[in-house]
Each structure stands twice: as structure tokens, then as C-alpha cells.
Amino acid sequence: RMKDSNPLKRAIAKIIRWAVTEAGDDSGEYQTQQITYLRRSGRSASIYPYGYTALAPADVLSVLMSLAGKSDSRAHMPISGPIRRKNLKEGENAMWHASGSYIHFKNDGDIEIHAAKNLEITSAGATNVTADTFYHLKGELAALYTAPFAQMSGPLNVSGNFSIVGGGTATLGTTVTSGG
């Protein structure tokens, strides 16, 4: 194979190339990952947008950049492969995981969150959920609310059974209607 006689093309080819990820280390000040490129192997810094982080699994295709073409100044950016969240519309974006979990930011302003297993939300302070039109909480087996004190304002409509258990008290307003 003949070498390209264009020195600019040769210089760019030394700076940017494809690589494949191997083992990673997320314990240091900067995340690094073992990568393979051009039948060579070496450590490389991982690049993600500010505020985002990930540790790509093995065998993920990456874009490898070498500052000034020096092999000791490598950084790579893993790219989304075939397991990514697919069928996004132009302008939409999503964060995804190989497990099937994702957060999808849609063009109409909706945000779709899907957890392949459990979804845990923890707050050291108050957690507020506000819906201008409707709030729906659905549990296939049960919905459990645990707190030392709970307060609700506005009408409360219950379809099905309503029980007070555990020896507590219920204070009701002036009108109580019982049916059935």
C-alpha cells in the first residue's frame, strides 16, 4: 500500500483514529481506560461532556485523539453503539444504559424515564412533585407511603378499600358519607 504524499493528511491520521475500549479505571483523579488501536494497546483518558460520566464496557468503538500526535497524550471518546436508545427525533437526546434503562428528553418538553429494574430517588432535603394538570401514581402490586406525618389538601377520592391500620386515629371534617 502506498503512503499518502499529503503531509497534512498524514499528520491528521496520526492525531485522530479509531480505537476499541478494554478495561477501565474510574478510581483516580481522571478516568482512564485501556484501549487498542492499530494493533497497539495503551492507556487513554476518557472524554465525556462536563457533568456526565461513564465507564464504557470492553469492546466499545471510540474516537482516539493524540495531542500533537504523541502517544503519551491520548484521549478517547466512546461512541454509542447498536444498544443505544434508538429512533430519536431530530433535536431529541437521551441517556441510556445497556440494561435498557434510559432518560429520554423529547422535543415536546416531555421527559420519559424508564428503569429496567428499580428506580430510587433520594433527597437530603424536601422532594416536591408538582403537576399542573394530573398526577398519577400506579403500583402493580401496591403503593406504599411511609412518613411520620402526612398532609393532604383538597378533595380525596378513593376507589376501592381505604384502611387505617396500626392503631392510629383519623380526624374527619364535618361531612362523612359511607356507602355500600
List the SSEs and their pairings.
Layout lengths: L6 H9 E10 L6 E6 L2 E7 L14 E6 L7 E5 L14 E4 L5 E4 L5 E4 L66
Parallel strand pairs: 3-5
Antiparallel strand pairs: 1-2, 1-4, 2-3, 4-5, 6-7, 7-8
Describe the structure.
The chain is mainly beta and 180 residues long. Helices cover 5% and strands 26% of the residues. The chain has one helix at 7-15; strands spanning 16-25, 32-37, 40-46, 61-66, 74-78, 93-96, 102-105, 111-114. The strands form 2 sheets. The protein has a 5-stranded mixed β-barrel with strand order 1-2-3-5-4. A hairpin with a 2-residue loop joins strand 2 (32-37) and strand 3. The radius of gyration is 27 Å and the shape is elongated.
Characteristic terms for this protein:
180 residues, mainly beta, 5-stranded mixed barrel, 8 strands, elongated
Structural class: mainly beta
Shape, principal axes of CA atoms? elongated
| Fraction of residues in helix | under 10%
Succession of helices and strands: HEEEEEEEE
List segments where confidence is low: pLDDT < 50 over at least 5 consecutive residues. Answer: none
Task: Please summarize the sheet with the most strands.
Answer: 5 strands, mixed, barrel
Gyration radius over CA: 27 Å
Instruction: Give the DSSP E fraction (strand runs of 2 or more residues).
Output: 25-35%
* N-C termini distance: 88 Å
Give the overall average pLDDT: 83
Number of strand segments:
8
Sheet with the most strands: spatial strand order: 1-2-3-5-4
Number of helices: 1
